[in-house]
Amino acid sequence: MALILDNLSKRFGGVVASENVNITVPKGKITGLIGPNGAGKTTIVNMITGMLAVSGGTIRVDDTDITRAPADQICRAGLARTFQNIRILPENSVLDNILIGFHRHERCSTLSALLGLPASRRETAAMRARAEALLERFGMRHLAEYPAGGLSYGHQRRVEMMRALASEPEYILLDEPIAGMNDVESDALAVLFRDLADSGIGILLIEHNLRFVTRLCQHIYVLDGGRLIAEGAPEAVLSDPAVLTAYVGGEHA
Ligand SMILES: Nc1ncnc2c1ncn2[C@@H]1O[C@H](COP(=O)(O)OP(=O)(O)OP(=O)(O)O)[C@@H](O)[C@H]1O
After folding, report:
1. Which of 15, 83, 173, 228 has most ligand 1 atoms within 8 Å of CB, for mutation?
2. Deepest in the core among 3, 78, 100, 180, taking most CB within 10 A?
3. 169 alpha carbon – ligand 1 mean position (Å)
4. Considering only CA atoms, which of 76, 77, 80, 96 is closest in space to residue 88?
5. pLDDT tens digits along 11-53
6. Could you tell me the distance, in angstroms and rounded to a whole number, from the CA of residue 218 to the centre of ligand 1?
7. Residue of 160, 158, 174, 156 whose CA lies nearest to 34
8. Atom 11 in ligand 1: which residue has the minimum CA distance?
9. First to last CA, the chain
10. Which SMART domains match (predicted)?
11. Number of domains the chain contains
12. Is 121 in the same domain as 151?
């Protein structure tokens, strides 16, 4: 069981953002995707989640082809993501921001919710309980009613992750999840990501922090100029001359 990108390509006019990229994200593992700025990492995530149309290649989740599926179908196939730039509703509470993520599992209509019918009330109570469990897991239960926009950057990132996890995905794509966090915060997330993978979720981790990636991933892919230039175990990949060249002079070397 895996999320499989097969010869995935994307062109923006004359710019080749992605060229014949092959990546496998197995369930229960954390797979790393690294590369210098502009290498094409976010383009890959945007294609997987249907935000960008692919120019070539296929995307499969387990046995389902989602290459040209609309975003809601991709979500129902079990995929969730976080964004490089935080996207939360700043005026709304932390709890409300998480509850937005549950819509994949919503069975009751908006009308029955508005009318407060019993099935809808039961569903709301169940979602609330699951959101509270996530808050507990992320150590943020005490902040449930706090406006999300008033949180620290690290906490806002965690709200994004909880919202993505609320849809109970089989695979989650994390786009620079520890950007702006201190070591204590990122250490706590490392433990959480391992837990998520151990519970069977497949994680694609896009990160500039190579130490973090090395620590968490058994397999990493390196993109440069839209092409994969290396893949394998972190130690081997990071000593690969092509990878060193791609990073030489770069801010993340
Ligand atoms: N909508 C777009 N239109 C034109 N070119 C784009 C568009 N989106 C991305 N690109 C180009 O595609 C290439 C890959 O960009 P992308 O954002 O995927 O890289 P990245 O590896 O995620 O970079 P970073 O680490 O800085 O976030 C870059 O050359 C970028 O300028």
Report:
1. 15
2. 3
3. 26
4. 96
5. 999 899 999 999 999 999 999 999 999 999 999 999 999 999 9
6. 26
7. 174
8. 17
9. 34
10. AAA
11. 2
12. yes
What are the residues whose beta carbons fall under 8 Å from the beta carbon of 34, sequence distance 6 or more?
41, 206, 207, 208, 210, 213, 220, 221, 222, 223
Residue 247: name the closest of 37, 16, 17 by CA: 37
Structure tokens at 214: 């090395």
* Structural domain ending residue among the three candidates 165, 189, 218: 165
Kindly state whether residue 83 falls inside one of the protein's structural domains: no
Contact 54, 146 (CB under 8 A): no
Atom of ligand 1 nearest to the CA of 52: 1
> 120-174: per-residue pLDDT in tens?
556 678 888 889 999 999 999 999 999 999 998 889 989 999 999 988 899 999 9
Q: Alpha-carbon distance 241 to 227, whole Å?
A: 16
Is 49 a domain residue? yes
pTM for the full predicted model:
0.88
Domain hosting 251: range is 1-78+169-253
Residues 184 and 239 in one domain: yes
